[in-house]
Each structure stands twice: as C-alpha cells, then as structure tokens.
Amino acid sequence: MKKEFEWQVGFCDGPDQIPAESFPAVVPGAVQLDWAQYKDLPPYWEGVNFRDYHWMEDKFWVYRAPLSFELAPGQRAWLCFEGIDYRYRIRVGEETLLEREGMFSPVRLDVTRFAGQDCELEVRIAPAPKADDSDSRDQARESCKAAACYGWDWHPRLVSLGIWGEAWLEIDTQSAITGLEASYRLSETLDSCQIEVEVQSGYSGRFRVSLIEGNEIAAVCEKEAKTFRLTLDNPKLWYPQGYGPQNLYILCVQAIDSEGKVLNEKTRRIGLRRSRLVMNDGAWREPSGMPKSRSDAPATLEINGRRIFAKGSNWVNAQIFPGQMTRGHYDSLLTLAADAHMNILRVWGGGFINKEDFFDLCDEKGIMIWQEFPLACNEYPDKDAYLAVLEQEANAIVRRLRTHPCLVLWCAGNELFNSWSGMTEQHHALRLLDSICYREDRFTPFIMTSPLNGMAHGHYLNYDEHTGVETIELFNAAHNTAYTEFGCPGMSPAAYIKTFMSEEDFADFRPENEVWREHHAFEAWSAKSWAREAEAEYFFGGYDDVEDLCRKTAFIQAMCYKSNFEEMRRQWPHCAMAMNWCFNEPWPTAANNSLISWPDKPKSGYFAVCEALRPQLASLRIPHHLWHGGDTFTAQIWMLNDTPDVLEGGRVELYYCCDGADETYWGGIDFDDIPAQSNLACGGVMFKIPDSFEGLISVRLEVLGRAKLGSWYNYPCRSRAAAPKRRMLNA
Fold first, then answer.
1. Domain limit, last residue, from 596, 612, 628
2. 82 and 211 fall within a common domain
3. What pLDDT band is residue 294 in, cutting at 50, 70 and 90?
4. What's the per-residue H, E or C state across 461-510?
5. Are residues 158 and 227 in the same domain?
6. Measured in whole angstroms, how far is the alpha carbon of residue 606 from the centre of its chain?
7. Are 199 and 290 in contact (CB under 8 A)?
8. Domain span holding position 130
C-alpha cells in the first residue's frame, strides 16, 4: 500500500532555523514553483522573470508533512523518495534518519517504529552547492548537480531545488521484496543468455524468479536464496528502430510460502541486446606514421553483431525543473524523435538523469541512448568528498538503467578533455566512473568523454562571416568518425516568440534589450548568437523586419540541417554517427540550434531533418548553399540506404525551377542495386542559372515508381551586383 503526503514548505537562512511561513508544496516539484504559486508570480519563462528566482538557490528549504499510520501484525513501513535535489536531511520528529548529498540516488528508510504515533516528517534542503562565488557554471564543478542549472548558452541560470521525484509511505508485509537487481550476458553467438538476479527482501523463505515474454514463461528458477541465474536459449533480441523488433521481457520475482502461495511480487522490464563500440572503417590505418600508439577512438555502434549508422540528436533537459518532467511530455518529444527516423539520442552530461518513463519509452520506440553522467565542461576534482558522492550517484544511476536495452553507451561527461575542462584519463572521477560501469554493466561500452580523437564537435554556424565559409563546405571536406555535436542556428517563429515577450520588446530587437539577450538571441555563445543576422545578410541580402528575420533564419536552419545530415550519411562507413545540437530545449528561446521549441513545438528545421533521415532516399550533394545569377549550378546525385535491406536499382530524375516558375526537366540517371547499409554516387548535374536571377532555386529528385524516395531542395540565389535589401538592425 502506498500513501502520499500532504506537504508544506517554507524557507529560512540557517540549517536549524524554522521557516517564518509555510505554504502548500507539490511533489514531485521544485521549491521555486511552490513559491511562485504561493505568491502568484508571473511565469518564470516570460521576459526576464527568472531573475526573481535567483535568491531562492541560497536558502534552506524545509518540507513538512504529517506522518501518522497504523500497522497490522507482520507489516512494516518505509519512507520512499525517488529523488531529492540536492543536499538534504530527513527527520521524523527529533530523530535524524538520513543526511545525504546527491539528487539521483533513491531513498528507502524503515519507519516501522513510528507506527501508532502522530509525528512530523521533515525534509530540509540546503542551499545549492557552489564551488566558488563566480555565479557561473564553474560553481557546479565539485558536485553531481546538473551543470546547466547554473546557466548555459540555451539555459538561464535557475538552480533547481526540491523533492523532484515521487515520495510516499509504503506499508507492506515482512515478506516484501524491496529491491530487484538484474544483469545479463549474451553468448558470443547470441543464441543463449545468462541472467543474474539479486533480490532484496527481509523474507527468508522461498523465491520464484520468472522471465516472461508475452503470456509465456521463457525461463524460471525457484529456491530459498536471494541470488539467481536464469538461462535463456534463443533469446528474442532488442534492436533500434529500422533494424529489427523492440523485443522486451518482464522479469518477475515472487516470495512464496511452503505451499507455493505468492506472498509478494516485484517486476522489472528487461530487454536483451549486445552493444559494442568498435573501430570505424579505416581507423586503424590512422595515423599512418610512427609512433602508432593511438588511432582515432572507436565510434561505431554494433548492436547484436550489426554495425549501425547512429543518426539522431542531443537531448538536453526537457524542463528547467526536473520535477515537471512527465511521461506525457517525454512521449510527445520522443514520438517526434522516432517520427524523424532518429535511432539515437545523446543525453548530454550537463543535464539531469531522466526519469524511468524516458527510458521505458525509448525501449518501446527503438531509440538508442548514449547516456552521460552529470559532468560537463568543468574540471572535477580528485577530492574524497566529491568522489564519494559521485560513486554513490553513479552506482544508483547504472543499477537503475542497465536493464534498459535502449541504453547502449555510457559516457563520463561532456567536453572533459578540452582546454576549458582540463581533464585527462588520469583524473580520479573518470577512473572511478569507468570502474563502476565495468563492475555494474560490463557489457555496455564506456567512453571517457565526448569528443574523442576522430570525433567532431561543431560547427555551430551556417556561415562564418569572419572566414566567408559556409559550414557545409567544411563538412564536405571533413574526415571524422562521428559528428557528436553540430548545430544550425535559427530563430523561432515570431508568433512563438511573442508568447514570452511583449510586443514592445519584440519590436526593440537589440543586444541591449535584456529580454532578447536572456532568451539567447544575442551573447548566448558569442556576441551574435543565436539570432544570426549575418546569415540573413549573406544568404538573402538582409531582411525587412524582425518577423522577416525569423522566417529567413528558420529557412536557413532547415536548409542547412538537411544538407549537413545527408552529407554525414554519405561519409559512412568511416563516419558512423551524426547527432545535431540539439533536439529540444527546457524553456522558450528566441533563437537556438534546437529542432523543437519548448515544450514540444517542432520548428521547420525539424521537418527538414525528418526528410534527411529517411532510411532510403535520393540525395543532392552541393558544394555550397548560396548561388549567384549567372553561376553554373553543380551537384552530385546520391542514393542513400541505411537499412539492412538491398535498395533495388532504378532511375532518378531531376527537375529544377527558379522562384516558382515552371519546372525544367534536366534528365535522369540510372542506378544499380544498392547493398544494405550502403550509399551510391549516381552522377553529376549541371545547369545554368539566369544571369539576373535573384530568389530561390528549387531542385526536385524523383525516383521513378517510388515516390517516397524523392527529395526536394530550395537554395537562395543572389545577383552579384545587388545591394542588401536594407541595413541590418544590428550591423
């Protein structure tokens, strides 16, 4: 039986002070949201209202709830918390039950002795951890708290605190199963699986462990013990979408009496797959000279013996406050990812560890997860206190998630080997995480950080005004094993932007306007990010007004994401991953690299990515995006095939037009059968652009008899002699 609490919360300045006032609290939630509700504050995501929340990170917050319950003979009671953010003390009456740091470790405390009493439960949360007084993301470097809370180039500084997971009083019998741990090992030939099961329970009798597939018991073991080994022959394996079915089992543990009656039961879903990270095609040949002590790091995922081109995105916090993350919100976002043909999401190390619903849905939808621990862009110390918390948190994270087949790769964190972090393999935090993943989940690969040798992080522009180079030109010439981050900035639709800023602020489009700046139009990463006026100037000759800038940069974002993803696919098998930065965002941005505006609104760039990631398609490879009147348009026609099936040969035909005029038939190219997971360059195309033309060039590829394989492209064209439409507002 589960019993929820009626919470009140208040704040004070000291570890033992009593709050001057208390007010209703929502659990799961955050203290900031409770205070805002109590004081009827305007939404934190409008304008710069989030600044009014800054003081809350420096207070002690005290949750209180009545604790009163009765027990029948043979019953016990536990306090259960899925997650508390971040440093906290739990008391019943005057008795301290637990003091702990860390938001990802669950809590389960025996409170049987308080039965029949009228007590008060108190959870006291300390101020947010800070390694210094910089008021920057560096403050996260000595804690396991999500670094993004302290501010990022797409995230305002809003440091969450509170009970962010479910909390309840659980009453059960002494035969209750309080925990169920599982791990497994597939044979080399994948035709047999050994599943190790550990049961936590105070019961000393007999247990039955069953592996259930549908309505059938696939394997069973029964004995008086707490550890079990199940052997499963010919297991049904889990595959990412596009490569096979998403088979799942139910692991069921039952406490039974001498007559076989079930006294208590606990279940856990499990999927079986073998994940390996292997060397990319040709990677052992580099470097070609001596000493040959380190080649590019392996970056090809091999699932159940099949090498996969991992195509997807970077997942960041779905909400500013983790307590607001719900199954419905996860499902909305992950459905968008699956519908875009994504088979992987990199869960970035500066964010939260997602709730169980996230991983359940990824299991079901066939989306692989690259999971990072909560380390990002800092040098994390070799201090005993920090390492003790990291070990506690990492153990909890790995044990909770290791039976999710979607989780195919562990990574210690984001950009830790870069100059701004200054870490190496010798830092104790990374050695510790490696050892935990080996001990607890040996057969899921682990890497120290992203990027590693051979991988690419960036670029995050569509056009660099300082070098005069379009980013697609860099990607066309690149030779990377993986693109684990790359971004195409663009502004959100004007109507969306006006939902979080006033008409007056919208019209006042300047870096000095703090609303535009704090919603990342300016000075997010550099002075001119992410509202890329220079790109509107380069591709279109300027813009008429802010709404026109929104439209044009959205067009640019979509155009470039489509080209970039298709180019990365062409670089298979040497390149084995393509993940843009980023998929989603935790609050509304005026401009960003994201495909989805908060909370779940697709941008035009998202729909372009849907087209680019189709498993099979005709693709146009262009040398650059901007064309000029009088140019000879040149491109290559490719056929892309990510699937495990042969793409039958056929004919691809090309049509083009200028600014909506009648289509011109250029011609067609025949192509042969394309083997599974292969790409083919079919031939080149050339046509003359009219001398004085300025507008959009549209190119359409049609595969005869197979409409779903066709593609459509639009590229800007400017007259070489034309002047900008108007001077940019912020030149």
1. 612
2. no
3. confident
4. CCEECCCCEEHHHHHHHCCCCEEEECCCCEECCHHHHCCCCCHHHHHCCC
5. no
6. 15
7. no
8. 2-172
